[in-house]
Design a protein that fits this description.
An eight-stranded antiparallel sheet has the order 11-7-8-9-13-5-2-15, with no helix packed on it. Strands 1-16-14 form a three-stranded antiparallel sheet, with no helix packed on it. It has four helices and 16 strands. The N and C termini lie far apart (about 75 Å). The chain folds into two domains: about 80 residues; about 170 residues, Glucose Permease (Domain IIA). Strand 8 and strand 9 form a beta hairpin. It is α+β, with helices and mostly antiparallel strands and about 270 residues long.
């Protein structure tokens, strides 16, 4: 039996599973990694089976495999986190655009008097009281977008206008076993006063990393699709806007969206 070929096949299967698990597109040379892994593993299998006395060669090959694979995967993940692809700014003012790349996890309609609560991995997360008061006087749409490890982590303005409110709530370091830990995630709440309506954006950081960097602040005039912040190794962005100001919502749970590109809702013509 050709153990080199068997090792290469095993390497391809493992890396293919990782690609699917990370929802990673086959691009940017990531398939070089399974070649490195498969070749090294296949060589180690060959030395082990055909020349069992060469233990030094086997150990060297396995160590080299770990270093090359670990460095390659770390470099690729860091690249995916830090990239900020150029995207044309939308010119339509009758649309609300996605503030983040990712998967829509929920589309909720809240009635007047309801409490605005974000949900992350099945746990609730409270938002600043001022943002609650701004939107829950009437019914509103609440949409949650989850970013995976491989998504762009730069967030973009959903509608052109002026930032009239922004609050940065630092996260607190609590044990991951603590059921209250999810309520202490770092978050930044921003409200954009567009020409036709107000739009709220809530950036939610990971419990472990807890860092959000903002590029735009209260009082700044902004354009739809313009970068305004980045969640470092972060995880979720929620969008809030009044129901009466939009004619339709264009997304549903499970949809993949792109920041500044995907249309979340159409603004009513009479606004």
């Amino acid at each position: 039996m050709n153990w080199t070929v068997a090792g290469m096949v095993a390497g391809w299967i493992i890396l293919y599973w990782l690609i699917l698990g990370w929802k990673c597109r086959i691009q940017h040379g990531i398939l070089v990694l399974p070649l490195l892994l498969a070749g090294a593993v296949g060589y180690a299998f060959t030395l082990t089976v055909l020349n069992a006395s060469n233990r030094t060669g086997v150990l060297f090959t396995l160590v080299l495999t770990g270093i090359l694979t670990g460095a390659g995967l770390l470099g690729y993940v860091l690249y995916r986190f830090t990239r900020n692809p150029s995207r044309p700014l939308p010119v339509r003012e009758d649309m609300i655009f996605s503030p983040a790349d990712g998967i829509v996890r929920y589309v909720r309609k809240l009635e007047s008097g309801d409490r605005l609560t974000c949900f992350k991995h099945g746990r609730s997360l409270s938002v600043p009281a001022d943002l609650q008061a701004s939107f829950l006087k009437t019914s509103c749409w609440h949409i949650g977008i989850e970013m995976s490890l491989m998504d762009v982590h730069v967030n973009r303005i959903p509608a052109s206008g002026k930032i009239i409110y922004q609050e940065h709530c630092p996260g607190r370091f609590l044990s991951l076993r603590n059921p209250e830990a999810v309520s202490r995630n770092e978050q930044v709440a921003t409200i954009v006063a567009a020409r036709r309506l107000h739009v709220g954006v809530i950036q939610i950081a990971s419990r472990m990393v807890r860092r959000i960097v903002t590029f735009r602040y209260a009082g700044d005039s902004v354009r739809a699709g313009e970068p305004f912040g980045r969640i470092i190794f972060g995880s979720q962005v929620d969008l809030v806007f009044p129901c009466g100001d939009v004619s339709s919502v264009n997304v549903k749970t499970g949809d993949r969206v792109l920041a500044g590109v995907s249309v979340i809702a159409h603004v009513s013509e009479n606004r």
